């Protein structure tokens, strides 16, 4: 960042700096020097992206899902989760079992040798996995057809946008993570962003309470099988807050 730009930021008050940070969905805590540094980093961040980060900016969700399907990986989740799954998958070596003969597979583990019908079990397992993959592929096709033939209206029944696909959702996640909902009442918080003002006051207030409750109780109510997903959710919010 140029010294002129830095001097401009230093001339601002803490309240003004926090206002700029809030508009960018960034944390508003810390000393004035920390707020300025955070704004500097946000301004220069996109110019210094690594190749992987640049790809993250450009690639679409459909492209990510296509790559995941080619690797036989799950295609559910937010964009950040899909990218992370691809990164982990690209570092994971393919199992050598696919290039091994039945005799080699059975000899690779002493436990396999105790089952006389191991070749049949292995064959049945491969067939079931293949069938499951085909079912998943067909389900994906049906979902795409449904979305194509029955598109969701642009607005909800009451005439406001759908929350789950609106930018306000991610902004509120960061604001709640920054505890702004404790500093302001819902109607006051709603005035801080134009995205929030697209929703009725009662709807926005409900969303604030829901998000606060979700983040507050996330670490306690998540079932064991959902803990990884909840951990990714909280980490995603933390990354956007840093």
Q: Could you characterize what this model shows?
A:
It is a single chain. With 242 residues, the chain is mainly α. The protein is built from 13 helices and no strands. Helix 2 runs parallel beside helix 3 and helix 9 packs across helix 12. The chain is elongated.
Which SSEs are present, and which pair or pack?
Elements: H1 3-10, H2 14-23, H3 32-45, H4 51-58, H5 61-70, H6 79-91, H7 102-107, H8 118-149, H9 167-177, H10 180-183, H11 186-190, H12 201-221, H13 227-241
List keywords for this structure.
mainly alpha; 242 residues; 13 helices
How would you summarize this macromolecular structure in one to three sentences?
By secondary structure, this protein is mainly α. Helices cover 65% and strands 0% of the residues.
Major sheet characteristics: none
Mean pLDDT: 80
Low-confidence stretches are: 46-55
Order of helices and strands: HHHHHHHHHHHHH
Helix count from the secondary structure assignment: 13
Number of strands: 0
Rg over CA atoms: 24 Å
The N- and C-terminal alpha carbons lie at a distance of: 19 Å
Q: Kindly state the percentage of residues in helix.
A: 55-70%
Could you say which overall geometry the principal axes of the C-alpha atoms support?
elongated
Strand percentage: under 5%
Overall structural class, as computed from helix and strand content, comes to: mainly alpha
